[in-house]
Amino acid sequence: MNEVRTLFEQFWICKDNNKEDYYKVKRDIPAFQRFIREQMGWKLIHTENLLKLEKIPAHAESFMGIQEFSEILDYCILCVVLMYLEDKEEGEQFLLSELIDYVETKLKGEILIDWTSFSQRKSLVRALQYMEKMQMLRVYEGASEAFGLEPKQEVLYENTGYSKYFATSFPMDISDFETWKDFEKQRFEEIQEDRGAARINRVYRQLAVCPAMYWEGNEDVDSLYLKNQRQWVEKYLEENLGGRLDIHKNAAFFVLEEDDCYGKVHPRDAMLPEIVLLVCAHIQQMFRAGEVVKQENEMIIFTERQFSELVLLCRQKWSMGWSKEYREMDEGKLVDTVKNYMKEWMLIRQSGDMVIILPAVGKQAGFYPEDFGEVE
Asked: Would you call 29 helix, strand, or coil by DSSP?
């Protein structure tokens, strides 16, 4: 169980800097290979130096992506650098000046590159530093961040050879794809998404890598499979990943026990998750008091103003227990920070000027002790 969890937690396992995990997971592959292949429908890349589980999700979610990136240009540059490394041998060295000329040439016609622009240089630095972190590049001399300060800086890199395993290989031509929706359509709709292995894979992927699985009505094919095969789904998840399966009217959750967690979890011991628990508790109180009502799909609709007032009310009542950062944070920033965190954990969804409260909010709540001093 711990070995397959290691594959879930890490993008990949490189032998040259993590031999212990590499060999432990490698030895255990026969124990979980069938689960990965049949239930998850994922590909396990296994070479002499690397192990990688291609964790393709059931659906694209807003929280997915490279956390270190902040601009679309970051992703564009990453893709071009991956192309550049395809022609490099493992261990081959190259200069930053050579690389930036290649990036500029390849993006020409799509994006106007101007390395005198600080924001564009920072995009390049973020992409290079991410690749260093992922061990696709090794700095031999100099520092990537220096280019962000001065465009004339030179850096000598070494290609580790791992970059060729970074991108997912697709069995179809994706050159005409325009949005992420095209990938989902190609992968599932065109292979009879409502039947067979594709549906099984969607259900297991959603439960295993996302905070929640939601559906709108009783005819949703994925939810029907989950309910009909609950015993087996729960068995395979528990045997391979631990945890338990909770199924509700319009939602399902794969929940880990407090003393047996792995990966990124919520709630955790930090101020922002604590604030979110208070917000969840307040919404539950509003529902019990009849101040808000659930829709047919178990969701609650707030206007943006109502949601903002709710967050600020929680601070007004409980700020004595909050850290200085959140007590004094600008109101708009506080609301946005809470909102973004709740979106990432699939607790809320934004639709225009409406904030949709999702069923997961009803599964968690936070309270201070009864004798805790409220702020009037």
From this structure: helix
- In 3D space, the residue among 359, 215, 334 whose CA is nearest the CA of residue 280 turns out to be 359
Among 42, 32, 41, residue whose Cα is nearest residue 6: 32
User: How wide is the angle at C-alpha 29 spanned by C-alphas 25 and 32, nearest 5°?
Assistant: 115
Helix (H, G, I), strand (E, B) or coil at 356: strand
d(CA 331, CA 317): 15
Distance, CA of 354 to CA of 240 (rounded, Å) = 39
| Cα 98 to Cα 238: distance, rounded to the nearest angstrom | 50
Distance in angstroms (rounded) separating the CA atoms of residues 332 and 317: 18
Q: Which amino acid is at 223?
A: S
315 CB burial (10 A radius; 0-12, 13-18, 19+): buried
| CA distances to 180, 323, 340 from 63, in Å | 14, 25, 9
**Closest by Cα among 266, 263, 283 to 274:** 266
260 vs 250: CA distance, rounded Å: 27
Measure the CA dihedral 166/171/173/174, to 10°: -50
* Pair of tokens at residue 366: 């936070």
Q: What is the maximal distance between C-alpha atoms in the chain?
A: 67
CA atoms within 13 A on the CB side of 359: 18
Name the nearest CA neighbour of 102 among 122, 83, 129.
83
CA angle, residues 149, 150, 152, in degrees to nearest 5: 155
Sign of CA dihedral 266, 71, 65, 18: negative
pLDDT tens column, 233-278: 999 999 999 999 999 999 999 998 877 888 888 888 899 999 999 9
Alpha-carbon gap, residue 257 to 243, rounded angstroms: 6
pLDDT in tens, 301-316: 999 999 999 999 999 9
